[in-house]
Amino acid sequence: MKAKVGEWLRRYLPAEGLSVVATLGGAGLAWHLAPGREVQAALAGTWAGNVAYFGWLLLQDVRQTRRQLHRCGQRYTRRTFGQNVRALVVEFGPAEVLDSLLIRPALMVWLPRLLGSRSGGIVAAKLLADVTFYVPAIVSYELSKKRLRRFEE
User: Fold this and answer.
1) Helices 2-33, 38-71: inter-axial angle, 10-degree rounding
2) Is residue 58 in a domain?
3) Mind telling me which residue stretches traverse the membrane in this protein (predicted)?
4) For residues 22 and 109, what is the distance between their CA atoms, to the nearest angstrom?
């Protein structure tokens, strides 16, 4: 189990770090451009964090797949890229829909109000939403490794 936790931390922790920075930046910029529009700021923060998070994971998956194929003397193709994207959709799809459209934006609207701090509320919202996000994502990741993340022919 210790090896699995290490694998998950190596996979998700760098993406989380980038996501926190992008979430704060996106929400802060939206608040600056449209003061008082909390829902827009919450959505901007959510989506900025998502772009950073999934962009990093896709980049890492592509790099790993390219190395794996290169060792076998095979090329990385558009079809392979499609497989990388499909594996991410399977890994995060159901968890991401609920997270991005409901749980995370709602927490990002209400927690800054309740805590009296925009940045503190956003970080708290992100951490709470991550709990409901990672359980199904990790289960899907483990299942996808058996079927969707094998690229050698």
Assistant:
1) 140
2) yes
3) 12-33, 39-59
4) 17
Count the domains in the chain.
Answer: 1
Smallest Cα–Cα separation from 28: which of 97, 120, 133, 130? 120
Q: Is residue 118 part of a domain?
A: yes
> Hey, what are 91's tokens?
């890994």
User: Cα separation of 152 and 112, whole Å?
Assistant: 48
Determine contact, residues 29/14, Cβ cutoff 8 Å: no
Q: How many other β-carbons are positioned within 10 Å of the β-carbon of residue 120?
A: 12
Tokens of 116: 């009296």
pTM of the predicted model, to two decimals?
0.78
Q: What are phi and psi of 35, to 5 degrees?
A: -55, 140
